[in-house]
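Priority: medium. Attachment 1 of 2:
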């Protein structure tokens, strides 16, 4: 087995890291305080390929491999959790369904638009007031055919990027009888009459990644805005979420890496009892645990991305990587605050923001509990 990055991946990693260090990380504090998305950096991401990680070059994207995509999202997570989540959601959720299942017309119309950096991003709306983890049974937002149009009615919750999106891929019920073939994905432009995006949610962290409720009241879009086959929405969504879990895992590794670096630097600089606190065994153990867990999470993440890139099944591995990386990030960021002591609780130091940003990761795109269910099903189904 070869654990080395290719030369191309190594160059890509440095390119993205340097960009994030210059354009993203220095503005992370202001993004958190103002709750404003970092459009200035996002505009520059288009030419770099960061807004079209999975979009083929023919449609204006970078079309990088799955490991390179994970590297990019990890570097963004290292720089700013808010920016990373918005860009990961755009790439993993907002464009992937079109790339994988969309018609040629949809690909040509929308992918170059959102990959360029000159326009808004993509979004995916799944969760509803009464449906979070239970997509198959809980979705009540419906779409019915009326002539050559879909008419959509319902409400979605926790839609990342809604206010900064050109369109929202919406999971709807197209067959009232229910079942696994009753859901479909439909692309809804955000300027469509009847579509209302609610105020940004006030969250614990990730303030610069806008999250909204979205209401559909007699929203009409062409029948051609159906993504993939009618009735295949659940299967398409679950496959999309597998890839999205790599993205959330990558953000988590990046957040943990950033908190770890801050903790190491502080431990070297802070003196107590006549010597650096880095000389204290209690501090050393926390740093050692963090270094170990970050390395393990990154290795698991890259393996999962490798499986995806080589068209191998990776549902179980995606769940393992997402669960471990997100829970690891919570532990590492918590201990980074502990190492900082009282200063770690102050907004003057970045570790408190990183901790708040990391807290969502065990919830979004499938809670840790759902990941454990996925893993257990695979374990129990094996001979």
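Attachment 2 of 2:
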């Amino acid at each position: 087995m070869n654990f080395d990055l290719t030369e191309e991946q190594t160059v890509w990693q440095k390119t993205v890291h340097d960009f994030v260090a210059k354009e993203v990380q220095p503005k992370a504090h202001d993004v958190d305080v103002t709750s404003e998305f970092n459009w200035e950096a996002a505009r520059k991401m288009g030419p770099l390929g960061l807004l079209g990680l999975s979009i083929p070059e023919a449609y204006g994207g970078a079309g990088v491999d799955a490991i390179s995509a994970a590297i990019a999202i990890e570097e963004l997570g290292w720089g700013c959790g808010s920016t990373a989540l918005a860009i990961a959601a755009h790439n993993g959720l907002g464009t992937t369904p079109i790339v994988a299942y969309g018609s040629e017309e949809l690909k040509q119309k929308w992918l170059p638009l959102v990959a360029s950096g000159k326009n808004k991003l993509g979004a995916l709306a799944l969760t509803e007031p009464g449906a979070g983890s239970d997509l198959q049974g809980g979705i009540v937002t419906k779409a019915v055919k009326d002539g050559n149009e879909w008419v959509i009615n319902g409400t979605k919750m926790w839609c990342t990027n809604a206010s900064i999106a050109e369109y929202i891929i919406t999971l709807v019920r197209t067959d009232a009888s229910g079942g696994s073939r009753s859901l479909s994905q439909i692309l809804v432009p955000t300027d469509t009459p009847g579509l209302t995006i609610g105020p940004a949610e006030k969250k614990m962290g990730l303030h610069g990644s806008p999250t909204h409720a979205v209401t559909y009241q007699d929203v009409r879009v062409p029948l051609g805005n159906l993504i993939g086959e009618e009735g295949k929405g659940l299967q398409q969504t679950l496959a999309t979420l597998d890839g999205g879990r790599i993205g959330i895992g990558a953000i988590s590794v990046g957040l943990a890496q950033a908190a770890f670096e801050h903790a190491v630097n502080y431990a070297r600089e802070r003196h107590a009892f006549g010597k650096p606190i880095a000389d204290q065994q209690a501090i050393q153990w926390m740093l050692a645990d963090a270094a170990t867990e970050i390395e393990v999470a990154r290795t698991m993440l890259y393996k999962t991305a490798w499986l995806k890139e080589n068209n191998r099944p990776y549902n179980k591995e995606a769940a393992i990587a997402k669960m471990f990386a997100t829970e690891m990030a919570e532990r590492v960021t918590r201990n980074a605050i502990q190492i900082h002591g009282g200063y770690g609780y102050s907004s003057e130091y970045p570790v408190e923001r990183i901790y708040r940003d990391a807290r969502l990761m065990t919830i979004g795109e499938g809670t840790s509990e759902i990941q454990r269910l996925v893993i257990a099903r695979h374990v129990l189904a094996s001979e």
